[in-house]
Amino acid sequence: xxxxxxxxxxxxxxxxxxxxxxxxxxxxxxxxxxxxxxxxxxxxxxxxxxxxxxxxxxxxxxxxxxxxxxxxxxxxxxxxxxxxxxxxxxxxxxxxxxxxxxxxxxxxxxxxxxxxxxxxxxxxxxxxxxxxxxxxxxxxxxxxxxxxxxxxxxxxxxxxxxxxxxxxxxxxxxxxxxxxxxxxxxxxxxxxxxxxxxxxxxxxxxxxxxxxxxxxxxxxxxxxxxxxxxxxxxxxxxxxxxxxxxxxxxxxxxxxxxxxxxxxxxxxxxxxxxxxxxxxxxxxxxxxxxxxxxxxxxxxxxxxxxxxxxxxxxxxxxxxxxxxxxxxxxxxxxxxxxxxxxxxxxxxxxxxxxxxxxxxxxxxxxxxxxxxxxxxxxxxxxxxxxxxxxxxxxxxxxxxxxxxxxxxxxxxxxxxxxxxxxxxxxxxxxxxxxxxxxxxxxxxxxxxxxxxxxxxxxxxxxxxxxxxxxxxxxxxxxxxxxxxxxxxxxxxxxxxxxxxxxxxxxxxxxxxxxxxxxxxxxxxxxxxxxxxxxxxxxxxxxxxxxxxxxxxxxx
Length: 555
Known about the structure:
Number of helices: 24
Radius of gyration: 27 Å
Helix content: 55-70%
CATH class of the largest domain: Mainly Alpha
Order of helices and strands: HHHHHHHHHHHHHHHHHHHHHEHHEH
Distance between the termini: 36 Å
Structural class: mainly alpha
Strand content: under 5%
Largest sheet: 2 strands, antiparallel
Oligomer: single chain
CATH superfamily of the largest domain: Amino acid/polyamine transporter I
Strand order of the largest sheet: 1-2
CATH topology of the largest domain: Amino acid/polyamine transporter I
């Protein structure tokens, strides 16, 4: 008969951390971790959003160039979530990322809602990349002297991307990373060229008029560009493949956030200082252009330079959409695997070994978003979903820390400093940004909650086993702390009852008491205590009688 160690007892009864993706080889070092995170962040945030953000900063009446401050503010708001996710990832270094963390903390209902929100975020960000592809496609028209229907072209590309994902191209990330880094390096060098060759208008980026109506404009624009940082915590989604996760995950997340925020601020600052913000609008209108990098490169380096920038943008947006649909479809697959969605989404193609129905479903949703949602709404909804997820991530750390005595499986190797300061600040600032985004983002978040609840109660609930989650314990701690302690004792003693006889021998009794917090050097005292309550000297004690006696004498 196997003897379980005290540290295993609560994991057996309360909530074991399952390896969601099986056993994966840990082969990613710190450099690889940073590259993955950077490549997940950079793309549409620089190639599409800046002109839209300028119009947002100006309140829709005129473009304003102070968007660099909005990108900086968005990074500061994300910082607490990055810190929280670093802690969560070292406690649960498995593949699955935010969905795993939230589902293990709150249970299947909130897990369903958050999984749907994460799927929506990545799906909309991938849609946003294809919208960016469509915006720069005119360059190919101009070079090849063709008349291309941009709407059809983006949908055809979407179909090809879905097919490629089903076929299971395993080098998608390896192709995406150099493309994004080359494009980013090009933007950086364009900024350097602008500094030395163009007369920069610092008033356009630092004057009072550069920030619209003030802090409200800065905050609402920060909320709008929030989606640019959605990939900062993508590292945690491949946590099962990272070497030395307790060191590389937090360092990778925080270092990549620092590098990306610096790049966003630098590039958008030079874009607005070197080219008048009005140039990023469609001629004679107040509609933001969706190809701001072409405008920037064309003004700084000339026509051919602008063409090169556009070609790189097309390539970058395509690679992002290719990897994005792969990432977003895995949320549907993971939820189906956890019996929260119909099991056909869990099906893996017999030949290509990819979750083809999850990929197809994601592709159909992206097609609808590209066809019917304006680019501004796509960015706003994606940012709204991401903010909502980051609020839940910060809440998760608070709940897990405060309920650790009943859920000893939560043992992070790296802990958030100044707990719970960063988490509380992150929740408050994220909620403010969500409010400032306006009704569309709030409606999107509410719709996600409603739809996720319907999905859970109509399907998921019937396929779930009851669990005691950290959220259950945390809530009980607020309303009935005595019941928490009772449940903790009950869980420990019944976990030690390996044979299920409702009796414990001396070894099992000591294991249960040690799991409850008694130190190993108390063994002699525990042995004496066991013999004193073993009234009939048969070497075992009745669990229920013992717990009743303890609680009556304690309370």
